[in-house]
Known about the structure:
It is a single chain. The protein is of the alpha/beta class. The protein has twelve helices and twelve strands. Helix 1 packs across helix 2 (21-28) and helix 1 crosses helix 4 (62-82). It starts with 5 loop residues before the first helix and ends with a helix.
Amino acid sequence: MAPLDLNLLRVLDALYAHANVSAAGRALGLTQPGVSLALRRLRQHFGDELFVRQGGVMAPTAFAEQLREPVTRTIATIRSDIVSVAVFDPARAKRRIAIGLSDLGDLVFLPDLIAVLRVKAPGITIRSVAAEPVDLLRGLADGTIDLAIGHLIDPNTAGHYEQTLFEQPFVCLVRPDHPTIADDLSLDQYLAADHVVVTQEGRSQERYEHRVRELGLERRITLLSPHFMSVPLLVARSDMLTVVPLAVGQIYVRLLGLRTLPVPFDVPAVELKQFWHRRAHTDPAVAWLRKEVADLFLGKDPTQSRQSPFWAEFLDPL
């Protein structure tokens, strides 16, 4: 079958509706000669007159009548199933969106994001995906993950986009009645303490550990753990010290009465970003969600904002 420009079907559909070349042109935003040229191409393609002048109107031939239903159905399908996809209505959308997050990412981003979705897009379901950084980047590339939020070390793989949202510092976390650490923490006290070290490759903690090695600091490491969320529970029942991002520290200050102290040496804050692949760059639903993430978090650390419905509680004193 010879290829057919689908725009010609729009002309055919307009001629069915208006039975007049000029009227069809006005409906389509085309000139009368433009419609006549399109009709000529249609006649050549189908080998039929398609429309003949009859009583002041353009009447369809018998062959054109056979085409009427499939043509109008095709145009309707294109409008409803293809064109309308680009017009994303969050209030009516039914969609599951996969977001790559660490356990810390769940804690920092999801409370405020879910609150916004509940109001603006109640039909959207978020699926939080925990994955190693290499698997996260692979998931973004193959479409199984739509968006990633948090910190990834060296994610600049071809085809990936990123947007920096805000920075978050690291803090030391100890129990309130620690026998050797009071309101201040010196470098000597830090090095002498028993440490719990969180080991997460490619994440924010790797950045901190790199800084410790860079400075040549030797700590007394008692425990290595891959989990942020269990470490403060261990700190609460021991004399151990750990270093965590501020969000984790604030939660456990509130829940367990732990104390946060500044790290006693210079450590750059960690950059938290959103990442996506070019295959999702023009996906209307994902683009809408990226904008909501930016509106919520661009330049605004929710753990430091009393405007955050979730985090305001943890910023208030006990």
